[in-house]
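Reply to dn_fold:

You asked what the input looked like. This is it:
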Amino acid sequence: MRKIIVAGNWKMNGSTLLTKKIIIGTMARLWDVNFSENFEVVFIPPFIYIPIASDLVKDSKYEIGAQNMYFEEKGAFTGEIAPDMLKDFDVKYVVIGHSERRHIFGESNETIAKKVKKAVEKELIPILCVGETLEEREEGRTWDVIREQLETALSQFDTLPGMVIAYEPVWAIGTGKAATKEDAEDVISKIRNWLKEKFGTDEVSILYGGSVKPANVENFASSKEIDGALVGGASLKPEDFAIIVKTFVGRG
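and this is what came back:
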């Protein structure tokens, strides 16, 4: 079943105080909102604040995600985080293949594939990010790029694993310039068709991410193709994040 998911990726932002402010502030603004079983709100703080975030949402309707993980279980990998470390703090989701990991830190499609495989093995739900750069878009290669990202990331699976996909056009991330609903629907429908052909099913939540904010969220929430949002900067402001969540609630 396709869930409606609104996830806030804080990126490298936060403090103990801000973690509490964001989570408590968001929950306070949504206290009277009834989420269906088919609707989830996910906070994705930096690793160091996951324990605090996990305690704050304990026994609530909210979930915690991580921004990354490594594909080994333990060992001499200084600075990396293993999947079992995340599970110690009740992390449910893990973002894999975010464009900033690909383009700033040089993660290849092959590395991302290893992370997806390990996350699934460890019963974490990967949020696999795919998307094209502005140059690739202008060259008309959007779908070629995304198809290759999908094919490599899911090459080790015979059946579609439990996961989430986030379409995040690189040119829209942190730029204030969001894709149009039609842009997002076009790519997401291609992703669904590809999944159907490869796995015989397209029953996976596909989110849109890239400068989602209160001013444009209605545009994306009105699309039946888009199953929620992976939110960046707006997730750091409880008032903005709560508006985005409420806009999608009617879909849940």
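The chain is about 40% helix and 15% strand.
Hope that clears it up.
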